[in-house]
Amino acid sequence: MAKTPPKTEIKLPLFHPLAGMFPLLEGKDFDDFVADIGKHELQNDIDTWQGMILEGRNRARACQKLGIEPRYHERSSRAKPLRETM
What angle do CA 64, 34, 76 make, to 5 degrees? Predict the structure, then answer.
């Protein structure tokens, strides 16, 4: 039986304080989400502002669990993060 290679340890950026406006998935919902990303890959980049995750914490956590390096999109430093996210 072939050995499965170890997952790559993915280090995530810090979560921006405003990211707390969006709930984290937990339990079966999160497990299903992880399975979906594992099957279909990451469909949307994770938004960051000032180097911190602003929107996409669940996607980032799912990628981390799968050992997949997430894709990030840095928001404009001139924009206000709340205005851009809504």
Answer: 55
Whether 52 is in a domain gets the answer: yes
- The CATH number linked to 81 is 3.90.1530
**pLDDT truncated to tens, each residue of the chain (86 aa)?**
555 555 678 999 999 999 999 899 999 999 999 999 999 999 999 999 999 999 999 999 999 999 999 999 998 866 665 555 55
Residue ranges of E strands in the chain:
46-49, 52-55, 72-74
Give the domain extent around 74.
Answer: 25-85
Q: Using DSSP, state whether 70 is helix, strand or coil.
A: coil
